[in-house]
Design a protein that fits this description.
It holds the Pfam family ADH_zinc_N. GO terms for molecular function: oxidoreductase activity; zinc ion binding. It comes from Nocardioides cavernaquae. The chain has 327 residues and is α/β, with parallel strands linked by helices. It folds into 2 domains: 151 residues, Alpha-Beta Complex (Quinone Oxidoreductase, Chain A, domain 1), CATH 3.90.180.10; 143 residues, Rossmann fold (3-Layer(aba) Sandwich), CATH 3.40.50.720. It has 12 helices and 15 strands. The strands form 3 sheets. Strands 3, 4, 5, 6, 7, 14 and 15 form a 7-stranded mixed β-sheet that branches. The chain has a 6-stranded parallel β-sheet with strand order 10-9-8-11-12-13, with helices on both faces. Helix 9 links the parallel strand 12 and strand 13. The longest helix is centred in the C-terminal third of the chain and has 17 residues. The protein starts with a strand and ends with a strand. The model has no long low-confidence stretch (mean pLDDT 94).
C-alpha cells in the first residue's frame, strides 16, 4: 500500500515521504480499515517535529484520527463486522495518512450517517476535546459567555459550534478577514480579528466589563497571558494546547486575586481513565450531528499525493477549518 512515512524528525514538508509499504495487520482488539478520510491535526505536525507528548518510534505514518471501512478484525474483537464504517483514533505507527490503517476497537465508534466520510473523520478528536472541555471540565452553562481562541481552526471551530449548542454566547478570536467570515458562518455571536483588534478590550466591552466566563485556549503563550485580563469572576480558563509555540507559566497570585480557575484538558487520558464517558460523548455528538446543531467544517479535501502540503500549511497556521485526506 501507499503511505506517508516519517523516518526523521523535522518540518512535515521535509520529512514526509510517500512510499510503498507492506499492508499492516491488526493485533488483538484491533481493526484493519480502508481509510475513507483522515484529517490533519496539529498533533500530526508536532509528531513530525518530535515535539508532541506522544513520540512514536521511527518510521511511522501520521494521521491520528480517521473514518475507515473495516476490512479485518483482530483477535478478541466483538461488536464490529467487515464493512462497518467507523471513526476513531489510529494505532500508531499505522496512522490514517495511508491507504490502510489500524484502529483500536475499544475506542472506535459508528460513523454518523448524516456526515460524509471527510466530515465524520473530523468529528472525533476536536469535538471530543470540546465536549469534555466545555461540559466536564469547565461546566459551561447556558447564557454564559465563551471566548474561543483560534476559532477558525479545527479545535476552535468545534468549540464554537458546541458552545452555541450549549446555549452560550460565543466570542471567537481569529486571524484575518477570511477566518473571521468562517467564524461567523460557524455561529459565533462576536468575531474578533486579532490582527486589527485587541481581544481583551472587545471582550470587556461586549460583557459590560465582566469578562468571559469560559476561555477556550488552544494557543497558549501570550494569548493565555492576555486572556487572564478578560476572565470573569469565577471564570474558567481551559488549557487545551500550545499551538502558538510557547508554553506559558501561570501567575497563581493573579488567579487567587480574581477568583478564576486554570483548568487543564488532556482529552486522550479519558480513553485510559474513563472510556465509558468517551462513548457517551460520542453518542451525544452523534445526536447533535443528526439534529444539524454541529457539522465539522471541511475546507479542503486532498488526495494522498497532495496531503503533505496541507499538513505543512496547517503547521504554518494558514489553513481554515479542517484539511482532510479524502481518497
Amino acid at each position: 500500500m501507499k503511505a506517508w512515512r516519517v523516518s526523521e524528525l523535522g518540518e512535515p514538508k521535509d520529512v514526509l515521504e510517500l512510499v510503498e509499504v507492506d499492508d499492516p495487520q491488526p493485533g488483538p482488539r484491533q481493526l484493519l480499515v480502508r481509510v475513507l478520510a483522515s484529517p490533519a491535526n496539529f498533533p500530526d505536525v508536532l509528531m513530525c517535529r518530535g515535539l508532541y507528548q506522544v513520540k512514536p518510534d521511527l518510521p511511522f505514518t501520521p494521521g491520528v484520527e480517521l473514518c475507515g471501512e473495516v476490512l479485518a478484525l483482530g483477535e478478541g474483537v466483538t461488536g464490529f463486522a467487515v464493512g462497518d464504517r467507523i471513526i476513531g483514533p489510529s494505532v500508531l505507527p499505522h496512522g490514517g495518512f495511508a491507504e490502510l490503517a489500524v484502529m483500536d476497537a475499544g475506542i472506535s465508534f459508528p460513523a454518523p450517517p448524516e456526515l460524509d466520510d471527510a466530515e465524520a473523520s473530523s468529528l472525533f478528536i476536536g469535538y471530543q476535546t470540546g465536549w469534555f472541555g466545555l461540559h466536564r471540565r469547565a461546566q459551561l452553562k447556558a447564557g454564559e459567555t465563551l471566548l474561543v481562541h483560534a476559532g477558525a481552526g479545527g479545535v476552535g471551530s468545534a468549540a464554537i459550534q458546541l458552545g452555541k449548542a450549549a446555549g452560550a454566547r460565543v466570542i471567537a478570536v481569529v486571524g484575518g478577514p477570511a477566518k473571521a467570515e468562517v467564524a461567523r458562518v460557524l455561529g459565533a455571536d462576536v468575531v474578533i480579528d486579532r490582527h486589527t483588534q485587541d481581544f481583551v478590550a472587545v471582550v470587556k466591552a461586549e460583557t459590560g466589563g465582566r469578562g468571559a466566563d469560559v476561555i477556550y485556549d488552544p494557543v497558549g503563550g501570550e494569548t493565555y497571558q492576555r486572556s487572564t485580563k478578560c476572565i470573569a469572576f469565577e471564570g474558567r480558563i481551559l488549557i487545551v494546547g500550545f499551538a502558538g509555540g510557547d508554553i506559558q507559566s501561570a501567575a497563581l497570585n493573579h488567579a487567587l486575586v480574581k477568583n478564576y480557575s486554570i483548568v487543564g484538558l488532556h482529552w486522550g487520558l479519558y480513553n485510559l481513565y474513563d472510556p465509558p464517558a468517551v462513548a457517551e460523548a460520542h453518542r451525544a455528538l452523534s445526536a447533535l450531528a443528526a439534529s444539524g446543531a454541529i457539522r465539522p467544517l471541511v475546507s479542503e479535501r486532498l488526495s494522498l499525493t497532495d496531503l503533505a502540503d496541507g499538513i505543512q500549511r496547517l503547521g504554518d497556521g494558514v489553513t481554515v477549518g479542517r484539511v482532510v485526506y479524502a481518497p
